[in-house]
User: What shape does this take?
Amino acid sequence: MGAKISREEDRRVLIIGASGFLGSKLFSALSVESDVIGTFFSRPALGLVYLNIQDKKQVSKLINKYNPHVIIACGGMTRPDECEKNQKRAYDVNVKGMNNLVECSKGKIIYISTDYVFSGEKGPYCEHDDPHPINYYGWTKYEAEKIVLKTDDNNLVLRVSGLYGYNERNNEFIETLIAKPVIYKADNCYSSNLFIDDVVNCINSFWNKSVRPLFV
Ligand SMILES: NC(=O)c1ccc[n+]([C@@H]2O[C@H](COP(=O)([O-])OP(=O)(O)OC[C@H]3O[C@@H](n4cnc5c(N)ncnc54)[C@H](OP(=O)(O)O)[C@@H]3O)[C@@H](O)[C@H]2O)c1
Assistant: This one.
């Protein structure tokens, strides 16, 4: 079962991070009905083009070549532990990279952010809650959000929490569950996890509507 998408033939969509968990699901679902260009960084896949978001010339070249109406930004460093250990890289990819995208874009940007922009002290959170990131990953995502929102009133930020679901192209989550006999997880963390198909449908319903710019 997959996300159902309505037809919009003249819609050209660029997905940054189409080799990732959410990006690859979006790529498959939106390609059925729209002209979709997807990028990879370290994991090449059929139909995707290479992009390092840190390289502004590459970003500009890609956008000028395809002229997307909408850019869905779900690429970057997404693992909190890696961001903590490699803070310069996390900043260069997640913050400077988004700045490159925003400066080169001519259309709407839908930026996929995270509930890590909040401290986690309370919850569930809503759009009116003030962000207060307590780790470097959350901080880079919040900085990128501000860049996206201050540049264009049409841009959107979606703060999603832990994603789950099936994905033909990228099934790291399920493969890990099958491969490892024992998985260690924190037992003092609570999260409102999201079904990945719901996120895809939600994104699809957003772009030609006038909606408020921030969703949690
Ligand atoms: N998954 C979750 O549970 C979750 C929860 C909350 C928020 N989010 C947010 O949702 C979005 C998607 O998450 P995800 O789980 O799908 O991420 P993911 O599987 O880790 O994918 C990240 C994507 O970013 C690409 N990328 C990495 N470095 C890049 C660079 N320098 N230039 C361009 N692209 C680069 C990767 O390409 P390669 O793989 O080819 O290297 C990959 O396509 C992220 O913005 C994340 O912060 C995810």
Notes: The chain has one domain: 12-215. The longest helix spans residues 87-104. The longest strand covers residues 108-114.
